[in-house]
Model the fold of this input.
Amino acid sequence: MTPVVELAGVTKRYGAHVAVHDVSYKLDAGKTVALVGHNGAGKSTLIRLMLGVTRPSTGTIRVLGLDPSSGGAAFRNRLGFLPENAMFHPASTGREALDFFAKLKGAATSRNMALLEQVGLAAAADRRIDAYSKGMRQRLGLAQALIGTPEILFLDEPTTGLDPGFRRSFYEILGRLRQSGVTVLLSSHALGELQGAADRVLVLNSGALIADGSVAALRALARLPIKISFRAAREGQGLGPEWQRQGDGKLTRFCEPNEKIAVIKAIAPRLEAKDDLEIEEPSLDDLYAHFLGPEAES
Ligand SMILES: Nc1ncnc2c1ncn2[C@@H]1O[C@H](COP(=O)(O)OP(=O)(O)OP(=O)(O)O)[C@@H](O)[C@H]1O
Done:
């Protein structure tokens, strides 16, 4: 399958500052891919490079088989973009804003109501945008990005500032888009919200791509320890020193993911029906901190 996006050895410098350093990847059609990293990691710069708004200092970029910086209007209409801070005229209604953007894109305005419906804004179509919540404005931004039925959507931090309910419903809309075959590339600070929402995660640190894979593959790569705890009716004598008694009376130890079953088998003969066994997998926030450091935001 020909990749829809292909970067090879892409570096972007602003003066002496390297915003993106030697990044290469290929994206397949129909996948949802997340770019994850701290503030300043280079996520927006990569999106701008793929949109053709800025050119790489070195390396090559192909989007839908073309150099995005030399693509014309027909090429741009095959892409949708939701900027980090989508701006709309506050006095216009959602419907008027979409009409404006459709005209800019040379697209028919007749689909706009269907787009508003798709993002759950049909009932608010004729309300002024200054009365929209942040979550509603982000959905309007998504509807704007969907004008003209784009093949690839670039969404720059679409869920930043949204409360958990709005985040969830935003990802539900993205899930439906994924089923319709659109390729989605979104950036995010938070790995935690991407479980089940992204097929693949690209982790960026200081402009460099430091990890690339599904959430499950990143978990396997990180090999973060698993915590096993149990509270036994009988004393857990004879267990090794790796088992520590906690303040709540539970016995706890950490182990490598590939030791988990052996550890459970070793304690199984001591467990009775009324005993309590807990297996705690590392959280996605732990995984983010593993790749990007303890000051990780979630
Ligand atoms: N036009 C520019 N001129 C100079 N430096 C820039 C420019 N655009 C970005 N940078 C710098 O490049 C680095 C990467 O910025 P970028 O906006 O791509 O990061 P980001 O991962 O999107 O961050 P955030 O999560 O804060 O949006 C930053 O250090 C930023 O200051």
Notes: The chain is about 30% helix and 25% strand. The mean pLDDT is 89. The CA atoms of residues 78 and 150 lie 4 Å apart.
